[in-house]
Amino acid sequence: MGENTKRWILFIFLAIAWGSSFLIMKRGLRSFDYIQIGSLRIAFAWLLATVIALRSFGKLRKQHLLPLIGVGILGNGLPYYLFPLAITKLDSGLVGVFNSMVPLFTLIIGAVFFTTSFLRKQLFGVIVGFSGAMILLQPTTNPEQNIWYAGFAIVASICYAFSVNIIGNKLKEMPSIAITSLSLLFVGPPALIYVFAGTNFIEVMQTDPLAYENLAYIAVLGMVNSALAIIIFNQLIKNSSPLFASSVTYLIPIVALLWGVWDGEKINILHLAGMATILLGVWLVNGKKRRKRATTYA
Predict the structure, then answer these.
(1) Top-ranked range on mean pLDDT: pick from 79-93, 234-248, 260-274
(2) What is the reported pTM?
(3) Which of 257, 253, 248 is nearest to 230 (CA)?
(4) d(Cα 167, Cα 271) in Å, to the nearest integer?
C-alpha cells in the first residue's frame, strides 16, 4: 500500500469518526445524562491513551505542566460535556455543523492571545463563518428543539480552539501521543471517580435494559473517536501536511448531518444554507497561504 493511499485511509477514518461522534452521543443519552456521557468519554479516552503511551510519562517536564492541564481541560474536558448537553435539545447533525467553526475560532484566538498573524482572506473567512452560524440560529422547524442550546456547542468549539493554539505554541516539541496521554491524565481520573461517586451510574446500569448497549457506544466514543482519533490526526500531519490534515474539517459536519438524516432527523433549507456558509468560511481560513493551521475535534 502506497503512502498516499495510507494518508487517504487515515483522512477518511477521521472524517467518519469525528462526524459520527454526535450521533453516538445521542445514543448514549438514551440511558445516561450529559454529565455521565462526558465523564465516561473522558475516562475511556484516558484509559486507552494510558495503555498506548505508558512511556510518555517520562517525557513530562515542569514547563509542560500548565499547557498540558490547559489542553486536558479545554481540549479533552469541557467540550465532552458541552456537546452532549447541546444534543439534549438539538439534533445531533445540527450540533455537528457548529463543530466546523473550530478553525474560525482558532484564527481569532491565535491572533488575540498568541500574537499569531493572519491574512485578510482569513479574516473574511471568520466573518463568513459567523454569518453561517447566525443562519443556523434562525427558528427551527422542530418545535422540540431549543436553538439557544447551540451556545453550548459554540463554547465547546472555542475550547477546542484554545487547545489547538496551546499545542501549537507551547507543546511543539512534545510527541503527539505524549500530549494526548499526559493531557488526559489531568482529567481522566477525576472524571472516572465522579461517575461512580457523584452520579447514579450504578443504578442506571442495574435498572436500564439499554444501559450496557449505550455504555458500549460511549466506550467507542472515548477510545476510538477521542484518544485514537487525536493520535492519528497528529500522525497524519507528520505524514502529509497541515493543509491536507486540516481539510478533514470540511467533511465532519457533512458526515454528522448525513448520520442525522439516517437517524430520522429533519433538516431544512436554512440548515443547508448555514452549513454551506460555514464551510465557505472554513475554506477561506484554510486557504493555501494561511500561516497558522486550524483544526477540529469532535
Answers:
(1) 79-93
(2) 0.83
(3) 248
(4) 32
Among all chains, which residue has been given the C-alpha cell 461517575?
195
Q: Tell me the per-residue pLDDT of 178-195, one tens digit each, with 9 for 90 and over.
A: 888 889 999 999 999 999
Max CA separation in the chain (angstroms): 57
Dihedral through CA 78, CA 79, CA 84, CA 85, nearest 10?
Answer: 60
The C-alpha atoms of residue 220 and residue 228 are separated, in whole angstroms, by 10
Task: Please name the residues in contact with 120: beta carbons below 8 A apart, sequence gap of 6 or more.
Answer: none
262: which 3 cell numbers? 439516517
Domain residue spans in the chain?
8-285
134 Cβ contact list (under 8 Å, min separation 6): none
> Rounded to an integer, what distance in angstroms lies between the CA atom of residue 116 and that of residue 107?
8
Mean per-residue pLDDT, 260-285: 81
* C-beta contacts of 147-153 below 8 A and 24+ residues apart: 147/90, 149/85, 149/86, 149/88, 149/89, 149/90, 150/86, 150/90, 150/94, 150/95, 150/98, 152/82, 152/83, 152/85, 152/86, 153/82, 153/83, 153/86, 153/90, 153/95, 153/98, 153/99
* CA distances to 60, 205, 249, 261, 279 from 135, in Å: 44, 40, 19, 19, 13
Q: How far, in Å, CA of 128 to CA of 187, rounded?
A: 35
Mean pLDDT value across residues 262-266: 84
Cα distances (angstroms) measured from residue 198 to each of 18, 39, 56, 111, 207: 28, 11, 30, 39, 18
Separation between Cα atoms, residue 294 and residue 106, nearest integer Å: 6
Q: In whole angstroms, what is the distance from residue 266 CA to residue 145 CA?
A: 11
Q: How many CA atoms lie within 13 A of 83 on its CB side?
A: 40
